[in-house]
Design a protein that fits this description.
The complex is a heterodimer of chains A (239) and B (218). Chain A is mostly helical and 239 residues long. Chain A has a single domain, classed as MetI-like (MetI-like fold, Orthogonal Bundle), CATH 1.10.3720. Chain B has a single domain, classed as MetI-like fold, CATH 1.10.3720. Chain B contains nine helices and no strands. The chains are: A mainly alpha (239), B mainly alpha (218). Chains A and B meet through helix 2, helix 3, helix 8, helix 9 and helix 10 of A and helix 4, helix 7, helix 8 and helix 9 of B.
Chain lengths: 239, 218
């Protein structure tokens, strides 16, 4: 194996700034998509448990579609196909006037995809709440909306914090798919450094180390959250 | 959206089918390799041998915190360098997928092995079976059986993941669809068709998982 080691390349000004900017994009895509995913995922997850059959059907369809199509295909559809399918004016706007189209598209695609996974967690969380609690709520004269607001959601959101940790880590990893539509996030930047300098080993190591650090920090944050949201005597850490 | 062209899909079907075959082959081989290596990793983690368990755990946690695309880039760069000669994109991709998915399969198998009751192991020991015999004839068959639905689910995820070989232009179904989309200028048709094909395959897979689960529950 002939290889010229040169770790210094990572600290040359140009390449270091590429890594930093890649890191910045990875974080922004992942966190923005996470916000979309939490909001839509919660709505869809709740929708899958409501008594109304039509709402349930729509939400179940959403989850099946977004879960069973690869994220890469979804990303391409949002980026290449959707502007063509919209009325002409909107399509033109998406192609020409939308600020930073790669970023916006990546966030929307990743957010809606992650939402389908979060929805499943939310639904599972609601279903683990013992039926006696909602029966008790009904007996007290609470409406369905009130039952969700005061009984089901407060409990289930606290139950699903541990499984959400792995989704939170996944969103950072999946943000790397934004490179397929031309967003120069961390993985893309390391690949670009490898191409420019032929120092693939150093470039990919740098990206790997940064991803591991992101995962560590994310895990620690979620563990802190887990500690504060755990319901005493309800679900053990091992469960 | 005024003129949806079915002909472009129809005429490119043979080309797309070749791509799909590559995707399926890559999925199949990676599942086999991933389960074998993943089981070994899980056994190493549960072996009680300190250093071995630490190495396996580090490997699994390292792989699980990096994106698959980065792993693919790694192996496209590393494999030819390590072997001193290029071996073609397919094998580099296959190695990357096996090593990547093994980390996920090992977590599944670990849960599976832990789901086997301790009494089974003790019974094996008292009948005079060796460690490997206990794993081979008592623990693993049950662990495997308990985990079949999750293993299949991971297989579906793996099939979706194979679309990522697009980043190194390996001609799988996704890359083939994208080539047709660009050369024919039919982005809408081709990407929607690709989505439909992936959906049908993965949805059938998740139906299978559902029926497996309900069969196991009874």
């Amino acid at each position: 194996m002939n290889y010229n080691w040169n770790w210094g390349v990572l600290f040359e000004e140009q390449y270091l700034s590429w890594l930093i900017s890649g890191f910045g994009w990875t974080i922004s895509v992942a966190l923005s998509a996470w916000c979309i995913a939490i909001v839509i995922g919660s709505l869809v997850g709740v929708g899958k448990t409501v008594p109304n059959k039509i709402v349930r059907g729509i939400c179940a369809t959403y989850v099946e579609i977004f879960r069973n199509v690869p994220l890469l295909v979804q990303m391409f559809i949002w980026y290449f196909a959707v502007p063509e399918m919209l009325p002409e004016d909107w399509g033109h706007w998406m192609k020409r006037d939308l600020p930073n189209p790669e970023f916006v598209t990546a966030v929307v695609a990743l957010g809606l995809y992650t939402a389908s996974r979060i929805a499943e967690q939310v639904r599972a969380g609601i279903e683990t709440v013992p039926p006696g609690l909602s029966a008790a709520a009904t007996a007290h004269g609470l409406s369905t909306a009130q039952t969700y607001r005061y009984v089901l959601l407060p409990i289930s959101f606290r139950i699903i914090v541990p499984p959400l940790t792995s989704e939170f880590l996944t969103v950072f990893k999946n943000s790397s798919l934004a490179l397929t539509i031309g967003l120069l996030e961390l993985t893309a930047q390391s690949q670009q450094i490898a191409e420019y300098t032929f120092q693939g080993f150093e470039a990919f190591t740098a990206a790997t180390v940064i991803y591991v650090c992101i995962a560590l920090v994310a895990t620690i944050l979620m563990q802190v959250l887990e500690k504060y949201t755990r319901i005493p005597g309800y679900v053990g850490k091992e469960a | 959206m005024t003129d949806f062209d079915f002909n472009v899909i129809w005429s490119s079907l043979p080309f797309l089918w070749q791509g799909l075959q590559l995707s399926l082959l890559l999925t199949f081989l990676s599942i086999i390799g991933g389960i074998v290596l993943g089981t070994l990793l899980a056994l190493a983690r549960l072996s009680g041998i300190g250093p071995l368990a630490i190495v396996a755990a580090t490997y699994v946690n390292l792989i699980r915190s990096v994106p698959l695309i980065l792993v693919i880039f790694w192996f496209y760069f590393l494999v030819p360098l390590a072997l001193g000669r290029p071996i073609g994109g397919f094998y580099s991709a296959l190695i990357a997928f096996v090593l990547f998915e093994a980390a996920y399969y090992s977590e599944i198998m670990r849960a599976g092995i832990q789901s086997v009751k301790r009494g089974q192991v003790h019974a094996g020991q008292s009948t005079g079976l060796s460690y490997w015999q206990i794993q081979r004839y008592v623990v693993l068959p049950q662990a495997f059986r308990n985990m079949v639905p999750i293993l299949v689910t991971q297989g579906i995820i793996l099939f979706q993941d194979t679309s990522l070989v697009f980043v190194v232009s390996l001609r799988d179904f996704m890359t083939a669809s994208s080539i047709v989309a660009r050369t024919e200028g039919r982005l809408v048709e081709m990407y929607l068709f690709a989505a439909l094909v992936y959906f049908v395959i993965c949805f059938s897979g998740s139906m299978l998982v559902r029926s497996l689960k309900s069969r196991m529950a009874t």
